[in-house]
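Office hours follow-up: a student asked to see two folded examples consecutively, so here they are.
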Amino acid sequence: MSTTTRQLSLNCCLLRFAVATGCWMVTCGSAPAESLAEANQLNTVAVETYQRAGDHETAVKLLERAVLILERTVGPEHPKTGIALDNLATSHRNLGNHAKALPVQERALAIFEESYGPSHKSTAIALDNLAGTHSTLGNFKKALPLQERALAIFQEVLGETHPSIGICLNNLAQTYCDLGDSEKGLSLQKKAVAITELSLGELHPNRIAHLMALGVNYSRLGRYEEAVDAIEKARLVANEVIEGPHPLKSEILHNLAGCYYYCNEHQKASLLAAQALEMRKELLGAQHPKTIRTLQNLAGSAYHQGNDADAKAYVEQLIELQQRNLESVLSLDEESRLSWQAENISYWFATLLSPNKLAQLLLRWKGVVLDSLIEDRALILSSSGDPRARAKLEEISQLRADLAKTAFNSSQKAESGRLKDQISRIERSLSEKSGSSGTARTALSVTLEQILPALGEHAVLIDLFRFSDLREEGSKRRCYGAVIVDGLGNVSFTQISDADGIDQAVDLLRTALLASDSNGVEKFTELLSAKLWAPLSQSIAPSTRQLIVCPDSKLSFLSLACLLDAQAKFVGESFTVSYVGSSRNLARKPGQAPGNTLAVFADPIFDASSKLLSSVGPANLRAAEADAFGGINLAPL
């Protein structure tokens, strides 16, 4: 009988935090005494000393050694090995190494399910930990069923008032909040606080964490006074029972700063955020996702107060750290990459950067996930001499075909989830292969100088993006930005207000076009010309003859050539207008000559059941595409 103490949840930074301090008992068979004793000692010291102190780098080294010993002694599928793997994944996750954490956690879960069955508490722990990593990545839809399953197991095995029920309820509540159901999340959080107070008392760290999470959700609902009250209670108890710097204390400071920010108490918010940042740097390191989010909040608060000097300094650090994290994230599976991008990539600080720095940032960040997926597939497909890579691609193709059959059938939800998990695991292994092949990610290495030859003397690039200006209020906060680059390397930035109004006008223009409503077409063309083209045209030199447009959001559905200039002429009458999916498409490698191959696509057959689709190739659909389009059949033209 061995006892392993672990932190169940130290999950997402802003809205997720729960710490389990109970002991999990696992019965294991016999093994060689010396080696097994060494592995047990390594595991115990890693968890109880280094993980608790926040030194996850040391914990990783000890746990990796423990796993190697256990694999040789008790075997790679033994529960003791599963425990060490689960602890190892926890440290990887807390270091921000999600690409390493996910497969390790999945392996631990598989071991527990095989050894103990699907309804054992060790299985429930592994489920909740795996859900925590998905949540940290912003992949809440994957986290939800894992947490629901973990909660059901704990309720069956431990009863309704066990401390672990409070932990699971709190984590589940956070996921519902992250998915937009704050009212349900609030109800579950209140229940988690009540169970924890009953089972562990008012001074237990779990109650502190649950009070904090309750306060964050109050803040989401705009109930700021209740939010501050709950989190200040958590802070008071934490300072009483926890000595020195601690991850839970840093989480409280971070979230309390957010609440005071929304209460317009910006000086108090900045002070708390600065304290949280220093503590997180000490405990987690500068590159950890939680540290980065605190840094982002501190930068935003400084910007909102008009303190541009401090805000710029914070933003420079933020960009550098996020750029490094991209290198790790691009080795994850497709859905995890997309989720991370949605949670972490934004351009609220656009007005703080010089136009050149902003242009460089857009080159490397905008559409980076899609580019990385395309690059992965191209690299793997070019490895024709590797039969294993080809076999994996064929397996993905078959799994996506199976997934398409479940796309619109709610009764096959479980089967759909199983297929997605299989696809994700294979995609991660393929991404790791491409990342280790020695080929640099185009998205992370492209420079502004590389696109200039494609522009020449008379063309400009207009790189459009949507962002929020934190100094504005309400709908005024949502803007479009345009970075305009000419062939000589001159870069300018134009901020275009009322992004919501522009998006609405685009939708109404498209509706009018489909309905052949000439009055509507005229009205919304004139409106968009005034709102969009008029400010853009101020930054375009008179000698310009070609516009190369990289659109964003709803502007992807608008033809700039059909807007009107100040003389009521179509823009297309004065300029040649072309489009690129990413400004990186203009970049050429050193010594690379322009291509002279023309590809023509015509007379398509839009029949999803056609046998011709099998000739497109094994990577023809992404997982998200299979979900959305897998069951649609269209008649040929």
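And the second, which I mentioned at the end of office hours:
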Amino acid sequence: MDRNAMFPQQLTDSRVFEIARALLDGFDRHYKIFSETSAQSKRRFEEADWHGQQTAQRVRIEFYDLRVKEAVERLDNDFGASTLPMEVWHQIKLFYIGLLTGHRQPELAETFFNSVTIKILDRKYYRNDFIFVRPAVSTEYIDDDEADGYGTFRAYYPTRENLLGMLKQIVVNYELSVPFDDLERDIQLVYESLIEQIGHVRLRTNFQIQVLSSLFYRNKGAYIVGKMVNGFRSLPFAIPILHNSKSRLYIDAALFGEDDLLALFSFARAYFMVHMPVPSAYVQFLRSLMPRKPRAELYNAIGLQKHGKNLFYRDFLFHLRHSGDKFRIAPGIKGMVMLVFDLPSYPFVFKVIKDYFPPQKEITREGIKGKYQLVKQHDRVGRMADSLEFTNVAFPLHRFDAELFDELKKFAPSVMEVDDEEQTLVIKHLYIERRMIPLNIYIREAEGESLEHAVIEYGNALKDLVAANIFPGDMLWKNFGVTRNGKVVFYDYDEIEYVTDCNFRKVPTPRNEEEEMSGEIWYSVGPRDVFPETFGPFLLGDPRVRSIFMTHPADLLEPEFWQQHQQRIREGYVHDVFPYDRGRRFIHRIQDQKALTEPSAEVAPVEEPVQVPPLGSAVHDQGTLSGFQSGGTSSAD
């Protein structure tokens, strides 16, 4: 194609600049509201307004689509956007690029442009001439130089002699209005932890500590995120700050190294609330801490999931161009609601809602979408995989194997469309999630320590979900997966419910021999009745699994466990969620020093899960696991 021929030689519509300006105004309005909501997380944290924090996090996710809808309506009403010829849209894009010169969120504004225009343009115009398939404006060296003089991050240059005092100053400079219970004690614990990491290594002339200027807020915690630089080495770190039962602050732990940060920014956790005038600068800094984490996932983690999705799709197109394997039906037990397929070389799976379900699945397509949206807006507490929702995705037709294509035609014909001219298969709606090893397959092939780890982790996952007011519904092993680091994560959402909406009951005692010997359920069962005692026959058929389960998470089979948690949630209690090993908490060091007694219920969760050390990437070496190539590049969640 002659690129010069595509460049407009003259304006064909005098309103081009006005339209471009209206589009950017729509984005600026969105980011202003987004930033204000994120900035208010500091106040909510200081006031311990946990329900307000949860509400803000849920509502913030809805902001983007609302602003896109507003922009589409304005363009249609004021400019008749849907009737404009393509050469005008090309000119609009070029003027829009010009408006982004000097903008502090140009990459987000490009994504907003895409979101609006694809609501207006026909799908055949989804090309780089009309939308931003590739970025047009660089985000290199953009910084927040208009805030408080610090920019995106603050740099401190301590010596070994004043390191302790400098650590205190770093915390104080965030100007939290709530006093610390004992900041001197906490800083001493951070200092001791840091010394354990760096030892007595020589401090080079460039020794410094860099911290991002804004705190990261999620659940009931605030996190200082930064790195220590010494010579040619850097050490990423995060410092969680929590409230205690006396409404005072304390530093709960010190996390060091890329693996700790990857766990903190995991794809299975809720998005952070963080005030960032220049998000690309934050992502660039975070990438220096977690080079294995894709930029798309970092944007997701800081609440900019629409741009994260845009970056993900660009990475996906790049992978398609540089691979040749075919999409196939994903290994494992086929679902009754979802048709799942994958690309062996790519570390994600694609999930399509079937057109029809078996009778026992009393749910609709819209109901399933609602469940996925519930998970998107909820605190996933490290136990529910984030899903990227896409519409009208064009796949190269020749990359589908025959079995998968036939399966799609049979179970989901309404969501597929073949474009013979472009030789593409357009899937009108699907979800994309990180690929994990299905837990049922992992358990079948595991033994020894790996098997024990998986069963205990399954129990921990359920307890974390319960604490977050989530009942999985279908608790079968096949609906959970094992991540690269051995974490068990739930990923099948069509039967998910709030714990507070369920009725957990004990199985009634039979009144006579006929009832006792009956092969049918003889007692009444309501639509949301749950009988935990009946989980056993479905979950514990393998005697190896039963032995482990009954030793550790056996209380999950008792209705009292679920009822107690349900009651606490109804009373307004928000459970603590620790995105790090609880053994890392400073409370344990303090207890060892005989300086504090047992933590109160306000500091520690009601139900401490059994501690299972992470097995690392070697967890996937257990058994043959045929058909599960790791494929591609991904983060170490």
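Two things to take away from it. The first helix runs from residue 3 to 6. The longest strand covers residues 233-243.
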